[in-house]
Design a protein that fits this description.
elongated; six-stranded mixed sheet; alpha+beta; 152 residues; STM4215-like
């Protein structure tokens, strides 16, 4: 098995441990197209996708270092009317509180696979609206960078 599989599996385990179903979280079936997910999942859902990668140009014997993005998307239902500004702002801030929990766990456990895979928070794209015909949902896409060595 390649290191990207190990890195992904370990990263998913970390995020799943933070965003548990006991706290109302549901894993989105469509990680790469949030709009395609059923409304039930969009009320309080998350997904983990594999993003772009690049060769870091660090060669060690017969291995190369690869830097790859893992994308975590958090979604919540916007159960407030347009004029309920305070409620809407509170919900938007809650997404950042949720993200902080994920960041704290990943940064606190920044090595995946016994120190052979490094992982860190890179940034996020801010609050976005999920285009859905029947209700409004807000999402927050964040990027984590994972670096690992792959045998060639």
């Amino acid at each position: 098995m390649s290191q990207v599989s190990t890195a992904y599996d370990n990263f998913v385990t970390r995020v799943d441990a933070v965003l548990t179903s006991n706290n109302g979280w549901m894993k989105l079936p469509h990680a790469y197209d949030v709009d395609k997910n059923p409304e039930l999942y969009l009320r309080q859902g998350y997904s983990i996708g594999i993003g772009s990668g690049s060769n870091t140009k660090r060669v060690l014997s017969n291995t190369i270092s690869i830097s790859r993005e893992f994308i975590v998307t958090l979604v919540r239902s916007l159960d407030y009317l347009d004029l309920e500004v305070t409620g809407r702002q509170t919900l938007e801030k809650q997404l950042f509180e949720d993200l902080k929990l994920v960041i704290a766990d990943v940064e606190g456990n920044s090595t995946l696979n016994a120190g052979q895979i490094l992982c860190s928070y890179q940034g996020d794209g801010g609050i976005e609206y999920v285009d859905n015909e029947t209700s409004e949902y807000v999402s927050l896409r964040s990027t984590f960078v994972v670096e690992y060595f792959e045998t060639i």
